[in-house]
Amino acid sequence: MIVTILELRAHILRFLQKFQLVVEPVVKFIIAFAVFHSINKAIGHHEMLMSLPAELLLSLLGTFTPSILLVLLAAVVSLVHVYVASPLLSILVAIIMVILYCFIARFSGKYGYVVLAVPILFLLKIPYVVPLILGLIATPMAIIPAACGVIVYRLFVVISNVALVEESMGIEDILLMYIDVIDRLLADKQMLITIGVFFIIILAMYLMRKLSIEYVFEISIAVGAIVCILGFLAADTMMQTEMNIVSMVFGTVGSMVIALVFQFFRLALDYTAVERVQFEDDDYYYYVKAVPKMNLTVPKRSVKKISEKMEPLPEEEETEADESPVLSDEERYAMGEELDDEPYENPVGENGDSFGE
Amino acid sequence: MLNNRKVRLMTRLAIYEQTEGKEDVRISKYFQTDYVRLNVLKTVVAITVGYLLIMLLLIVYHSEYLIREAVTLDYAGMLTRYVGIYIIVLTVYGAMAMIGYMIKYRASRKKLAKYFRMLRRLRSLYREEDGELADLEEGMISYDRDNT
């Protein structure tokens, strides 16, 4: 059973490696389309933007531009929708977005796209996937973009509740509506609870995965999921929110499965990134396609002798054990065999990377 | 003749230059103090803009009260309070930014050091190949110029 799954993974990875040039844009396009489609479904007011050609065009734009532009495009599209519903509200939303950027989002570093992922996954009812995966790959600093995403999502929830009530109104009504929005935002217990629980999940998983035990990542995911369910349950009983417990539990379980699948492919995916570079020296131009070796693909079977008393032989998992996350990072930039005599250094940036622009 | 070891090394160098290296090289053009100061300054500007916007929202939120009590308000007291909060926020953020960017700078420096070790390795490969130091110095310099 396990062997079949491992072989299946090897096949999938080989396929991805072979067709990386095609697969990457396709995946990006699907993500971009999901983003714009869920925005349109959630707060769609602008007819033209909601049409399929517009969605496809925007997604195409998001496919071939850096991912930061997708975040920006999504923000602009949502602002336009809000503007159609109520120009004044859109100004308020824009101001709040700028404030969020100035105080929080600019420190989210390479996890900036999380700000976008959280609201989208909230709409798909599996936002818990975000802390579960961030707990696996990031430092607790990653709570910064995650919190931002939660705030943005709750902001739009509040807005869409208010915008429904709005009709033609005078300056006093507008002021009242504005005060109402701010009041609702500040009184939003759900937002604070979600950010708090997300932070505890990321922190717990971060501390867990530092332990040197077997299956540490899988255990961390389980711990994260348990913390998630217990945290939201405790918060719900203490603070009386109107949260849907059943959907939370199912969402967490679903997120856990996604995180496990992610973990299953993660280390391997780090390896499969084919690099194309070109450079020259005095004699040649080099056009190099560097294909990483996948030494984890086909598991070796080892024969265990049980008739004699001896040290247990390494098990099948051993083939995978030699690509711990530290090594996989190291591998791509390491000096390789020529420099093996160099003292090994921890990959830097474990703490520093997530900081800054 | 193609030298396999050299190609391997140069590929590694090129991959680094095209991915993480870009940022590291950009950072390495600053001294640490300059880099940290520049980014702290950016943070200060961002915080100021954000704080002003928050004040704007606050003023609109309390506009009714402000207009009603316009004559009796303690403007000096309010000013001191909000400027005080601003200075506190600014100090906290500035300190955090300073520490954060310092860590980032050092991390990038370490990665760059690794890169230079690879370059040295390449230099010694050239030396093996040519047996002449002069050529290699020239080659190294042009390689540096082209790629960094």
What proportion of the residues of chain B is helical, as a percent range? over 70%
| Terminal CA distance of chain B | 26 Å
Largest beta-sheet characterization of chain A? 2 strands, antiparallel
Largest chain interface and its two residue counts? A-B, 41 and 46 residues
Runs of chain A with pLDDT <50, length 5+? Answer: 314-357
Count of beta strands of chain B: 0
Radius of gyration of chain B: 27 Å
Oligomer: heterodimer
Q: Which structural class is indicated by helix and strand composition of chain A?
A: mainly alpha
Could you say which overall geometry of chain A the principal axes of the C-alpha atoms support?
A: globular
Mean pLDDT of chain A: 77
Helix tally of chain A equals 15
Write the layout of secondary structure elements.
The complex is a heterodimer of chains A (357) and B (148).
Chain A: H1 2-18, H2 20-43, H3 47-50, H4 52-63, H5 67-85, H6 87-103, H7 114-123, H8 129-137, H9 143-165, H10 171-186, H11 189-209, H12 216-239, H13 245-272, E1 275-280, E2 285-290, H14 318-321, H15 325-333
Antiparallel strand pairs in A: 1-2
Helix pairs in contact in A: 1-13, 2-4, 2-5, 2-7, 4-5, 5-6, 6-9, 7-9, 8-11, 8-12, 8-13, 9-10, 9-11, 11-12, 12-13
Chain B: H1 4-18, H2 20-28, H3 32-61, H4 63-68, H5 75-130, H6 133-147
Helix pairs in contact in B: 1-2, 1-5, 2-5, 3-5, 5-6
What tags apply to this protein structure?
heterodimer, A: 357 residues, mainly alpha, two-stranded antiparallel ribbon, 15 helices, 2 strands, globular, disordered C terminus, B: 148 residues, 6 helices, 89% helix
What does this structure look like?
The complex is a heterodimer of chains A (357) and B (148). By secondary structure, chain A is mostly helical. Helix content of chain A is 66%, strand content 3%. Chain A contains 15 helices and two strands. Chain A has helices at 2-18, 20-43, 47-50, 52-63, 67-85, 87-103, 114-123, 129-137, 143-165, 171-186, 189-209, 216-239, 245-272, 318-321, 325-333, and strands spanning 275-280, 285-290. Chain A has a two-stranded antiparallel ribbon with strand order 1-2. In chain A, β1 (275-280) and β2 form a beta hairpin. In chain A, α7 crosses α9 (143-165) and α8 (129-137) runs parallel beside α11. Chain A starts with a helix and ends in a 24-residue tail after the last helix. Chain B has 148 residues and is mainly alpha-helical. Chain B has a domain at 31-112. Classes of the chains: A mainly alpha (357), B mainly alpha (148). The A-B interface holds A 92, 95-96, 98-99, 101-103, 106-107, 175, 178-179, 182, 275, 277-282, 284, 286, 288, 290, 332-333, 335-336, 338-339, 342, 345, 348-349, 351-353, 355-357 and B 2, 5-16, 18-20, 39, 43, 46-47, 49-50, 53-54, 56-57, 60-61, 63-64, 100-101, 103-104, 106-107, 110-111, 114, 117-118, 121, 139, 143, 146-147.
